[in-house]
Request: fold
Amino acid sequence: MANNAKIILGIDPGTIIMGYGLIAVSGRQATIIEMDVLKMNPKKDHYERLQMIHHRMNELIMQHKPVCCAIEAPFFGKNVQSMLKLGRAQGVAIATAMQAGVTVAEYSPKKVKQAITGNGNANKEQVWQMLQRILSFTEQPEYLDATDALAVAVCHHFQANNPLAAAGKSKGWEKFLQQHPERVCKP
Reply:
């Protein structure tokens, strides 16, 4: 991995299983560093689990020194207590990253799926399979929360390297095509 590679940490927050994935980005090329989960005992006190999230986030940040932490926003469910606990887990992850000086970006599950598969309603297996193609890896994690976190990191990479954003929205397609002739299909 090149010294100028930027590291992005992706987080899929959870109070029982928190997924995390790290990618290294050099130019437009992303490579996987690590993906895994922090699995917490559901019998432990909720506050102890939040402390575990804080501790693991600190370890990841100290070890890999990411420049950004991309985190998946919680989706809205029917169980208010579950949403509250998930929001706390997300808050701990965000606060830990910010305290370490790591910028944070948040993406909705639909946005992440859209960025990875082109379909905002894709299932976890479709996201995992597309990530395998994008990042050229073969392993299948035990928990798809790990690939969900990896997807958040890749989504952030795609957003940061979006040529349409660089072309400027007011300039339109003509300006984009002038700046990126290699993107035009020729018959």
